[in-house]
Design brief:
Strand content: 5-15%
Strand order of the largest sheet: 1-2
Shape: globular
Radius of gyration: 14 Å
Order of helices and strands: HHEHE
Structural class: mainly alpha
Distance between the termini: 34 Å
Largest sheet: 2 strands, parallel
Length: 97
């Protein structure tokens, strides 16, 4: 979508993050996020929040691409300022999980 199209619908939809450039898979069909350094993940997450801030000043949520995450991604999400991150793992969610 173009910036003008996003501006037209921002009063109706809430834009949140799905990363900036990490929503891809590698040659083995694994989320590329899993092979990146914590520094690169944090840079990408922060860039995504900045890009979306023009449409929503409260970019607090992150969806891990393809459900893939690891300890580096969780730490980077916290450092980037996200309040909540979601994945596609099956099962029940428990406090602290």
């Amino acid at each position: 979508m173009s910036v003008s199209e996003l501006n037209e619908i921002r009063d109706v939809f809430d834009f949140q993050s799905h990363t900036h450039f990490l929503h891809r898979v590698d040659g083995y069909r694994r989320p590329i996020l899993l092979s990146r350094s914590e520094h690169n993940i944090l840079f990408d997450f922060a860039r995504s929040r900045r890009a979306l801030a023009q449409f929503n000043p409260h970019v607090w949520y992150l969806s891990y691409p393809f459900g893939g995450f690891n300890d580096k991604a969780v730490k980077a999400a916290k450092e980037a300022g996200f309040h909540l991150a979601v994945t596609t793992m099956k099962g029940k969610v428990k406090p602290g999980g």
